[in-house]
Amino acid sequence: MKFVFDSPIPDKITAMKQRVRWQDPLFVSRRINQTQIHIDDPQRDNPRFSFLFTGDTGYTTYQRNNPQRQVAQLMGEQQEEINFILHTGDVVYQVGSKEYYQPHFITPYQEFIVGKELGYQKITFDRPFLLVPGNHDYYNLPVFYGLLAQGVKPFRRFLPLPFAPDFGLQGSNDGNTYAQAFLDYTLELTPEALTQHLESHYTAKFQGEWCLNYQPYRFTRLPNRYYSFRYGGIDFFALDSNTFNAPDPQINSPEGVKIRQQLRNQLQELDWQYDQLIAKFEQLDIAVPQQQDLLADYQRQLQQIRNKKQDISRKLQGDKIAIDYEQLDWFKRKLISSWLDPQVRGRILYLHHSPYTTESTHGKQPETLEVRYHLRQVLNEVAQILKKPLEDRPLLDLVLSSHAHCLEHLYTNDTGSADSYINWLICGAGGNSVRRQYSNSTVVTEQRSGIKQQVAESRLFLGSRGEGMYQKKSYACVRIDVHPGDPPKFLIRPLIAEQAYHNWYHYQLDPFIL
Ligand SMILES: [Fe+2]
Question: Which of 29, 75, 272, 415 could form a disulfide with 455 if both were Cys (CB 3.0 to 4.6 A apart)?
Answer without folding.
Answer: 415
